[in-house]
């Protein structure tokens, strides 16, 4: 058929281009495009032109997609929607909104969903409200769940929680995406009790079954409110869902694993980890981090060895958990070996968190001068987290004279954390250098560094 251009029509071109997108065959799609140009189809058939816009957008070639759109003599709503979708998909949200403002035909529901997605990403709530108003005035997307969900997501992302709730309660058709978006919106706004209440309503109503995104969101809420009982209930619910027990849902079980680790319930975390049918790198990393935080440093190092045996290559986050385990366990020699392997063997460039972990490891072991020498030899300027780790080491082991020198570095370091300043002030106060402590406090007020008020929930059995 490829050798006989006369047999081609817009169906053969559109389906072939779609197949190329699905199979990630960019070169073959370009060949089909060239064939369409030679046969004359690509310059006159709007179906093929729209397919080309989508094809190039799927591969991130925005310039080619835009060129194909500009070549359409009379773009229809599919043409406009395709180019807007392509721009949003590839991170050009502002450009997508500019294209939408110039649209010269009546947008359909899919157009509005795409534009609302761009508004959500840009937090452009006022423009989103205008689109909402347009849809009501022109009955576009009326009683369309996809449009309603896009609006719900916009208001949730922009923290317009009351507006989102009013819209949610007025929707005629509510699916799992609607429920999940509402629960997530409450969670982002830190209305955790409302998020939990909404989840219970979803379960009790039975109209929609929670999906993986719903459960991940609810598990994060359990951690935020410190509700181990709700977390255990969600765990029980997950075990009753046979569809979640098959592969493809590792992120849900990782969220459950992370919840138990953050609650400090390592017995349950280990139980969940052992039961995972499809462990991924994140699963191993969560467990190593949990063991490090709970003082099981040796077990964390052993787990790292098992992870390598099972064929998983560590990333930067894995090494951060590993270095933390060495720091808390006092394994300085092992920690330095892992840090070297991270750079030399796995070619992972250390970030400030890795450097801070090494400093903390030295500090906990009382190796103050080694810690200071490490900071001086860093290939990049230390930030607040590194200096704070160094300060904390001297606070534990006591050396106020060196703190004077470090204090000057902290004061002149861009992005120094509130913790660094507070630690410095506390060190001065601990050795009765009240005048110096007050100077640091005055400096905090002067530069406008403020402590964020804390908020916590405690579940009482």
From TrEMBL:
PPR repeats lie at residues 76-106, 175-209, 280-314. PROSITE patterns: PPR. The keyword Repeat applies. It comes from the Eukaryota. Keywords: Repeat. GO terms for biological process: RNA modification. It holds the Pfam family PPR_2. GO terms for molecular function: RNA binding. This is Pentatricopeptide repeat-containing protein.
